[in-house]
Structures are given as C-alpha cells and as structure tokens.
Amino acid sequence: MTFLQFAYKNVTRNKRSYLAFFLSSAFSVLIFFTFAMFIFHPALTEGYLNNIARKGLTAAEWMIFIFSILFVLYSVNAFLKSRNKEFGILLIQGITPAQLRVLVTAENMMIGTFSIVAGIIGGLIFSKTFFTIGVYILEMDALPLYMPWKALGITICGFLLLFFLLSQFTIFFIKSKTVILLIKGAENMKPEPKPSILLSISGVACLVMGYGMVVKGNVHSYMPFLILILTIVGTYFFFSQSSIWILRAVKKWKGFYLRGKNVIWISDLVYRLKDNARLFFIVSIISAVAFTATGVLAVYKSTVGAMDSAYEMEYLSFEGNLKEKQHLHDIEHELKQNHFAFTRYDMSVSYVRYKRGDEVPPVILMDQETFQKHFSMSMNDLKNGESIYFPSTYEVKDKTEFPKQLDLLNKKNELANQKLEVKETKKPLISVNSVLVVNETTYKKLHKLGESTKLIGYKFKNWKDSLGISQSLTNKLYGDYSDVHFQFDAKASTHYMTVQLPSLSLFIGLFIAIVFFTAAGSFLYFRLFTDLEEDQKRYRSLAKIGFSEEEMSQSVTIQLAILFFFPFAMAVLHTVFAIRAGDFVNVTKPVLLTIGGFLAFQLLFFLMVRFSYLKKIKSFLTMK
Q: Which domain of life is it from (predicted)?
C-alpha cells in the first residue's frame, strides 16, 4: 500500500467525521463561487449600480473567505482531536513527523479537492437561480449565463491554497504534544465549567435593560446605539456565563435533577453550552440582523410606489440663483448625451415656511390652475383658506407627522397671522419638497409671504438607467456646497438610496447568514462526533445500570434540541425588540416568512444530526 493509498483509506474509513466537513466546505465554495460569477459577469462592467454591486459582493467574498479560513482551521483541529489516539499509535510504530505531516496534508487536500469540485458543480447548477434572485432583489437587467473562467481560477487557487496552508499550520498542534498525551486524547476529564456569578448576572441585566428601554420607547438620540451595545454584551455573557449558571442552579433542584434522564442531559449540556458559547453568540446576532433586515426591505419595496415623484428629475431654483441657466444646460446636455428623450415642465411657485413646534419647515405653495396644468390628477375646487398637502418623498420615508393646519410665516420667519386648513393629505407629488395646493384667490393673497421660485421637472423613460448621470449631476451641480440657491433631485438616486442599496445589503447579508447557519450546524456536528467514543462508553455504562434506550433517545434529543434552537430562539427575541425599537410597520409577514425558512432549514439539519448520532450510539450498545 502506498502512502497516498493509506491516506485515501483513512479518509474513506473516517467518512462519518469528514462528511460534515465536506458538505460545509463544499457549501462555502458554492457560495464563494457564485458570488465570484456575479462579480466577474461581463454585464456588470459598466453602470453606477453595477459598480456598487461589485464592490459589495467583493466585500462579501472576502468575508466568506476569511470565515472559511476559521471554519477549515476549526474543522481540521476537530479531526485531529478525534484522532489523537490514532496519531499516537502511528508515532509509536515509527512514523516520522515528516511522514505524519504528509499524511495529514494528503488527507485534507483530498477532502478539500472533493469539496472544491462539488462546490463548483453546485455553483454552476445554482448560478441561474442565484442570478435570478439577485436581479429581482437589486432590480437590475437580466444576467445571462457565461463561462466564468476568472471565477473558476480564483475559487480553485484560493481554496486549494487555503486547505494546504491550514493543513501545515495544524501540524504544530500534533507536534506540541507528547505520544502519551496523544494516546490519552479525549480520555482526559475536563473540569466542570464554573461561571462567574457577577458576569452571569451582568449578562441577564444587560438584556433586561436593553429590552426595557425598547418597551418604554426610549429610542432617541444615542439610545439605539446604547441598546445595541447592551444587547450584544448581554447576549455574549448570557451564552458564556448565564446559561451555565442557570443549569448549575437547576442541578441543585434535586427533585427535578435526579429524576430519570434529567441528570444525564443536564450534566452533558453544561459542557456543551460552554464549548459552543461563542458560536451561539455569533449565530444569534447575525440571524437577528438577517431577520430584521428582511422585514425592513420588504417594507421599502412595498412603499416605493408611493414614494415615486411625478418627475424623473426635479430642479427648484430660488431667488438669486445666478447659476440657473448653466445648471439647466448641464442637466439637459447630460440627458441628450446619454440618449434620454425628455420633456421639460416649468412652473412658477412660491417658497414659504410655516410654524411646526420649534421648527419652521418650508413648503412649495402652488395655485390650483398650475397644479392641474402640469399634473394629471383630478381635484375638486378648493375654497378660500383650504389646501391640499402633498408631502415630499423624504417626509414619507421619515414618517413625519403631517400638519392639519398651517400657521404661515413671512420672509422674516415671523408669524403672518395667516392660517391654512389642510383639507386632505395625499401621496407625494415631488421629492425636493412638500407641496401645498390652494385656489387662485388664496395664492394671490399668500404667495408674497415667501420667495418667488421656479420648479422645473423632467420626464423621460427608463429612468432607472439614469442612476449614473444622476449621481454625476448631483456632484457637479452642488460642487463644494459653497453657493447653493437651488435644490436638485433625481428619482433614480432616491430609488437607489431607499431600495437598491438596502436590497444589496440584504442580498449579501442573507447569503452570509446562510453560510453561518450551515457552519453552525456543522460545528455542532463536529463537537458531537469528536466526543462520540466517550459518549458511547458512557451510555453503555448507563445501560448496564438500567438506563433504557428510550431514556437515552430522549436525553440526546433534548440536548440536541437545545443546542440547535437555543441561539435561534434568542435571535427571534432580538428581532422582535429590534422591530419595536425601529417602529417598523407591516414587517410581521416578511419577518415570519424569513424566520420560518431558517427554522425549516435548522429543523432539517437537527433531524439529520439526531438520526446519525443516535444510530452510532445504539449500534455501539448492541455490540458485544
């Protein structure tokens, strides 16, 4: 038998241990490869949104790759720990450290190569679905399939190098141990974790304080940041200290602890919660962010229609604007140069202010005749002193409370003893400012309170394609903001900031959350099967003193259920309070759908691990 054949036999013989590593590594490769296919797609080489998408996806690539480094390192160490006795025997039989290095490297390169091949094949199969989801969420043009040579090269070279270097690094963990320690391996008894009472109480206290501030509605100024810090700190100490402290307290409740199977699963769970505390903390925080972001994005996408302006570009020119002609020339030149056939609308309006608490927000005063001439909306004749209020798209986004009556100010920002009744508040008309429509008589009476202003609107088709020139015009017109007597806004820019950018963040975040979820299940799998031999011996000893197979199954199920769903439940709790803190509305359904999807994924993983773990335990008990 050659050395490579020996390594291959080790891999196939330990396929139970390698299975979770293989599947999770292949999944990481799949996600990395599909992101790379997106990044290097020929259709994304031009365009402002495409450039932003590429930068975001590139950042996600680095996050996934860095996480893959930690994941592979952890996985390899888990294998080495479970095979310490095997390595000790090999060293006694005369294998040299150099040969042991070659053996471990060959084994990990084999499983790494299989993972890369499987991940790339899966990525090629999954790519069309991935592109479809990405295009839908980001509202981009359809992306055709192509031969991703760059993505293939980066994925293969990057992950092969990763598996090789980490294989070399982990050899030092073996070389640092004596043969006796390797042979003893997992037989060394770990002391029972002893949590700090102070940190345990602090963990619970931080969570209670953070949740309490949300319930009381103290979410202003610096409070959201403080709540976030309290939640993060509280979650970490709750998993690493408080949960273990609670279990130790349960152990003192003799009537419950000493009843049947409880003594087994509670004792085992103390160790496993301590071992996985950091993993639970990361999964809880990332999952909560993913759940909340999904709901918020759904609200953005559902309300964007109500936030659309009547014009694709708007220019509001105030008195004393010496650059008006040049600005309008620049706007129209850019539109013509980029082949946008536009129609221009010019309106004379008044820019007035009104009293609202301690604020004096501006509003565009427009007569009913001008409104009906330029906007295709029907409106009943207004009486003197009556008005129709059209909030700006930004007021809708910021959930500003709309006025019922307006106390108008003069040019010196003093009360002018002129009040307007807001008969009705409708959907936004334009983005640059709110609009107040009154009849001709009222307009002639009040327009002198403000400054004469021009509102110019541009209409053209395919406005989403104008994002690049919209950003360019914004930078060019405003310059260094030293002389601003105008307002400019573009529908493409508003849509990008309110929908497409959050969509991109969610698109990236959801896939990263899925990677973490998959890895979390794999880590638990590694932990369980690393200690499998020790658990088998313990359950056999318990069987000899009367511990039934049914009680064993119940004990294992309870432990696994807590390990799999404890961080999930914490993430759901965080999500509930995050939604309340943000005062988000209409997010319940999308959040529940997201949580349900992750729950189904977690439940499937739980059932698979439980079945495999119980099968190994029961098969050992039946052995003679």
A: Bacteria
Sign of the dihedral through C-alpha 186, 192, 198, 200: positive
Domain end (from 390, 414, 446):
446
Task: Count CA atoms within 13 Å of residue 364 on its CB side.
Answer: 27
- β-strand partners of 347: 455
- How do strand 405-409 and strand 451-459 relate by DSSP bridges? unpaired
Place of tokens 């790759």: 65
**Nearest CA among 409, 365, 369 for reference residue 388:** 365
Say if 567 falls within a structural domain.
Answer: no
What is the C-alpha to C-alpha distance for residues 186 and 533, in angstroms, rounded to an integer?
9
pLDDT digits (tens, 9 = 90+) for 325-354: 999 999 999 999 999 999 999 999 999 999
**Per-residue model confidence as pLDDT tens digits over 228-239:** 889 999 999 998
Q: What is the value of pTM for the model shown?
A: 0.67
Residue where a domain stops, chosen among 411, 446, 481? 446
Return the number of other C-beta atoms located less than 10 Å from residue 362's C-beta: 17
**Would the pLDDT of 310 be above 80?**
yes
* 423 within domain boundaries: yes
Task: State the residue for tokens 């903001």.
Answer: 481
Q: Residue 300 has what pLDDT?
A: 62
> Between β-strands 343-355 and 451-459, what pairing exists: parallel, antiparallel or unpaired?
antiparallel
Q: In the numeric block, which tokens belong to residue 575? A: 């999500």
Do residues 213 and 223 lie in contact, with contact meaning Cβ atoms separated by under 8 Å? yes
Q: Among candidates 292, 312, 341, which has minimal Cα distance to 495?
A: 312
- Tally of structural domains, the chain: 2
Domain assignment present for residue 548? The answer is no
pLDDT of residue 348: 92
Residue 418: pLDDT over 60: yes
Element of type H or E holding 367: strand 362-367
CB 186 within 8 A of CB 533: yes
* Pairwise CA distance, residues 214 & 208, whole Å: 10
Bridge partners (DSSP) of residue 425 are 389
Per the structure, the complete domain to which residue 151 belongs is given by 1-187
In the predicted model, what is the mean pLDDT of the chain?
A: 80
* Total residue length of the chain: 624
Find, among 433, 439, 444, the residue nearest to 353 by Cα: 433
Residue 199 belongs to a domain = no
Percent of the chain scored above 90 by pLDDT? Answer: 17
Two tokens, residue 228: 């976030």
φ/ψ of 620, rounded to 5, equals -70, -35
φ/ψ of residue 414, rounded to 5: -110, 150
pLDDT given for residue 346 in this prediction: 94
Cα separation, 520 vs 615, in Å, equals 22
Instruction: Give the pLDDT score at 615.
Output: 83
- How far apart, in whole angstroms, are the C-alpha atoms of residue 33 and residue 396? 40
Question: How far is residue 463's CA from residue 474's CA, in Å, rounded to a whole number?
Answer: 15
Quick one: pLDDT at residue 549? 78
Residue 487, pLDDT score:
92
β-strand pairing of 415-425 with 435-438: unpaired
| Rounded Cα distance, 158 and 65, in Å | 9
